[in-house]
């Protein structure tokens, strides 16, 4: 489901065939899909929306202009990076499949289980925050621009940047889960080797070939996971920097509006503004915390 969603949004531009043999091919349609989106975002944000916002002579329009230009640049960088480096995702998927083939020989538990109660609660809260953000945004930002331009200015960049961070988080999660299973198997084997009850049994003598075979499978699995980690690190090493810069500026940008809405005279507008600002902030920074958690986890492994 996740792979189909990423393919639909253009962030996983490939066709995947598992049976009878593994086959991953780049999807040529995604190239035109990316180019059309890049052109639409640049045209609507810089050519159409920017002059309209500039006509409003207020201090917060400076922040609006900076956010508009920054979000456009970061979004274009994300789409361009996928155009130029899309084969890296294919290689990453192949490395994971190869690692799973060796993991099956070791009977490792590498199943991806996203549906825990904690994840379900976070998912519900996150969807609820997105709903508040989508509903209150047109009510809060009463700008003199058409609605479809409004969507490209505020909704599309936020969605693309959040989706980019979540895909990075998912890739690290896939590697971390397999690393944890591999390390657990190695530690369990070492524990058995060090136990006196097991060390002096006949099994130790008769299973040397099995131990050597397991060691080879450990090494092969580790090598494939390490290579997959290098591919992901190289794929995101540049793009993640402007994305994090955009997130930091969004926090400053929303902080200004949170303070101004807090001291708003009208109570109804105050609640509407704070609801929009806090939901937008939640939607933006929560994926960053998930990403940090996965980075710490894979570093520990």
Strand and helix map with partners:
Blueprint: H1 2-8, E1 14-17, E2 23-26, H2 28-54, H3 60-106, H4 117-140, H5 147-194, H6 196-199, H7 202-206, H8 208-236, H9 240-262, H10 267-300
Antiparallel strand pairs: 1-2
Helix pairs in contact: 2-3, 2-5, 3-5, 3-8, 3-9, 4-10, 5-8, 5-10, 9-10
Structure in a nutshell:
The chain has helices spanning 2-8, 28-54, 60-106, 117-140, 147-194, 196-199, 202-206, 208-236, 240-262, 267-300; strands spanning 14-17, 23-26. The chain is mainly alpha-helical and 301 residues long. It has a two-stranded antiparallel ribbon.
Strand content: under 5%
> What is the arithmetic mean of pLDDT?
74
Radius of gyration: 24 Å
**Tally of domains:** 1
N-to-C CA distance: 27 Å
Query: What structural class results from the helix and strand content?
Result: mainly alpha
Side by side, the strands of the main sheet go: 1-2
Helix-strand topology string: HEEHHHHHHHHH
**Percent helix:** over 70%
Shape call:
elongated
Q: For the report, how would you describe the main beta sheet?
A: 2 strands, antiparallel
Q: Which runs of at least 5 residues are low in confidence (pLDDT < 50)?
A: 16-20, 200-207
Could you state the oligomeric state of the chains shown? single chain
- Write down how many β-strands occur, each being a DSSP E stretch of 2 or more residues: 2
Supply the number of helical segments: 10
